[in-house]
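Renewal narrative, Specific Aim 1. Our central claim is that a sequence can be written position by position from structural information alone. The example that follows is taken directly from our test logs and has not been curated for this report. It begins with the structure tokens describing the chain, in the order in which they were read.
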């Protein structure tokens, strides 16, 4: 059996010719790139094994000088990969920073529609309900406002001084007062959510049902809650032949 000794031990001619990939005596990221390329050995006559600059080695230690075109390709691959990594980190940062904005925008949209319905609904119908077992129109609006203060409060934001959240159902009665209360709630909720830090959004809180959620998840529950009440308010308006302003 024909063999010769290299720095990695005896290697047969068959082993040299059957070697399918280059092992590159390079360091760092460049070495990883070249290994990932799986470049087949295209030389039938191996050179004497030895370490030298810009030299690649197949698995049987046959020396084959690297080409400028390969080096140029590797530099391009490295540049593209670094750009992708940097872009990925930037995207994650933007995503983390924008979750508050995204939730706040949706909350704002729901409350904006509630205010619009509150303004067009007749004052003498504010205590009207389709049946005796459901909330009257006014109660939906005030309840949604109370929920806003509760859920936003999970993020450590207290209601503004002078706002009686607990007594709102009994004290906020007239249409004008309800609309003002709802607008004040909207401004508070939207600005508070936008101002929350990532740490606050990721913190765990206990909810009314005994479950433990992040503040972020709790705000999504809040958004769903108020959206359900908005849907009921739309039904109330339609039953009174009132077209929601945004649908006109």
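The sequence written for that structure reads:
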């Amino acid at each position: 059996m024909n063999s010769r000794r290299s720095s990695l031990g005896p290697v047969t001619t068959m082993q040299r010719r059957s070697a399918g990939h280059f092992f590159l005596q390079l360091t760092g990221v460049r070495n990883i790139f070249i290994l990932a390329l799986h470049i087949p050995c295209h030389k039938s006559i191996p050179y004497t094994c030895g370490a030298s600059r810009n030299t690649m080695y197949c698995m049987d230690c046959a020396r084959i000088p690297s080409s400028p075109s390969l080096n140029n390709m590797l530099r391009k691959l490295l540049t593209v990969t670094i750009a992708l990594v940097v872009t990925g980190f930037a995207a994650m940062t933007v995503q983390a920073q924008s979750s508050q904005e995204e939730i706040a925008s949706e909350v704002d949209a729901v409350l904006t529609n509630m205010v619009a319905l509150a303004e067009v609904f007749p004052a003498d119908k504010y205590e009207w309900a389709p049946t005796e077992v459901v909330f009257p129109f006014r109660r939906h609006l005030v309840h949604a406002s109370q929920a806003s203060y509760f859920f936003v409060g999970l993020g450590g934001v207290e209601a503004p001084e002078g706002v009686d959240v607990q007594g709102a159902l009994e004290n906020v009665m007239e249409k004008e007062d309800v609309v003002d209360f709802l607008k004040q709630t909207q401004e508070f909720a939207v600005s508070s959510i936008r101002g929350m830090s990532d740490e606050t959004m990721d913190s765990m809180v206990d909810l009314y049902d005994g479950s433990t959620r992040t503040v972020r998840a709790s705000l999504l529950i809040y958004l769903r809650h108020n959206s359900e009440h908005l849907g009921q308010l739309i039904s109330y308006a339609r039953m009174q032949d009132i077209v929601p302003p945004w649908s006109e």
